[in-house]
Amino acid sequence: MSPGSRQRTRAAAVPHSAALDGQDAPSWGTVGDVQLILVRHAQPDKVVTSTTAADPGLTDIGRRQAERVPAALAAHEITRIVSSPQRRARDTAAPTALARDLPVDIIDDLAEYDRDLPAYIPIEDAKTEFADAYTRIKAGLLPEQIDGPAFTRRVLNAVEQLVAATPHTETVVAFAHGGVVNVLLADILGLARPLTFPVDYCSITRILYSRSGTRTAATINESGHVWDLLPRNLARTT
């Protein structure tokens, strides 16, 4: 039984256009909900090989993406910011932490499934350089060498503890990774594939936790604030 399996779940579908046309994101939930806002890291550098675990920082584009997150979160009264220990997540969190004058608390178990690997290839490069791995991920599956159940347990435990430590009515922002966001959504929505959703750089996913234990996926992959800076869209303009 996974950590959260005793909780009730409720999902709300979000029209993708709401994230693209500048409209305010729809809002669900009631007064008293804990709101967990998950932000995927910005675009990181490529690390082809390393003698230790690869831990890249951000590209120039990634830094521009991260600088747009504070404005995208402006409507939310954020009381705490947490981050994965990996540099790409910490660097993405920095502009928001500065804008809110809040510290960034590191939660080790929000690290991505690749945290011990000696290379990091951004997904847009993996399409041509590591076609088999890319095809597997795009099919919604974790890489073969990853212990999927262990990774999922780690993430769900970390999120459960984070939410339990957050007073009701408060909003906490977690800067993390596409795999982290996906396995949490898979647990909430009862999905078979661990990597069901494309999660863009600096995209925002909002989960609401009610006092009764209901978990609601309020929005998934809000990306309008960085739409023009996503690799697939930059490629169209060059």
Considering the chains and any ligands shown, give keywords for the structure.
single chain, 238 residues, alpha/beta, Rossmann fold, seven-stranded mixed sheet, globular
Give a written overview of the molecule.
The chain has 238 residues and is an alpha/beta fold. Helices cover 32% and strands 16% of the residues. It has eight helices and seven strands; from the N terminus they run E-E-H-H-E-H-E-H-H-H-E-H-E-E-H. It has helices spanning 60-67, 69-72, 87-100, 123-129, 131-138, 148-164, 178-189, 231-236; strands spanning 9-11, 34-40, 78-83, 104-106, 171-176, 204-209, 215-222. Strands 1-7-6-2-5-3-4 form a seven-stranded mixed β-sheet, sandwiched between helices. Strand 3 (78-83), helix 3 (87-100) and strand 4 form a beta-alpha-beta unit. This is Putative phosphoglycerate mutase. Residues 1-25 are annotated as: Disordered. GO terms for molecular function: phosphatase activity.
| Strand arrangement, major sheet | 1-7-6-2-5-3-4
Helicity range of the residues?
A: 25-40%
- Helix count? 8
Reported for the largest beta sheet, the result is: 7 strands, mixed
Span of the ends, CA to CA: 49 Å
CATH superfamily: Phosphoglycerate mutase-like
The CATH level-2 architecture is identified as: 3-Layer(aba) Sandwich
Q: How many β-strands, per DSSP?
A: 7
Q: Judging from the principal axes of the Cα atoms, what is the shape?
A: globular
* Structural class determined from secondary elements: alpha/beta
Low-confidence stretches: 1-29
CATH-defined fold name = Rossmann fold
